[in-house]
Amino acid sequence: MKEQSETKLIVCDICGVKAARLVNRPQVLGRGEQMMLVDNVPVIACKNCGESYMTGATMHELDSIRSNQKTKTAKRKIDVAEFVQS
User: Fold this and answer.
1) Are 61 and 29 in contact (CB under 8 A)?
2) Of 33, 41, 54, 86, which one is least surrounded by beta carbons within 10 A?
């Protein structure tokens, strides 16, 4: 099993170490009435340097989603909490 998980490691563009993985995360775009949540955005996360980043293709697709919000989104009700620092 260990060998299989190692094949999923990629070289980090930030630190150059083969310690990064492709993970899917939610991403919030926009503000106010234009705010939307995009599920399953592919992000490269590095365990060595702690950085996370997206490829140019991913950024391009997020721009396309933002530009075509009415045709590329579906309305869903979600709970929203606000973090209050004490």
Assistant:
1) no
2) 86
pLDDT at 78: 85
| Percent of the chain clearing pLDDT 90 (strictly above) | 66
Return the CATH number of the domain spanning residue range 2-70. 3.10.20
**Which amino acid is it at 3?**
E
pLDDT in tens, 39-61: 999 999 999 999 999 999 999 99
34 DSSP assignment = G
Distances (CA, A) of 51 to 8, 21, 73, 82: 17, 11, 29, 25
Strands 18-29, 52-53: pairing is: unpaired
Q: What is the pLDDT of residue 70?
A: 86
Residues pairing with 37 in the sheet: 28
Q: Find, among 56, 58, 53, the residue nearest to 15 by Cα.
A: 53
CA–CA gap between residue 84 and residue 25 (Å, rounded)? 23
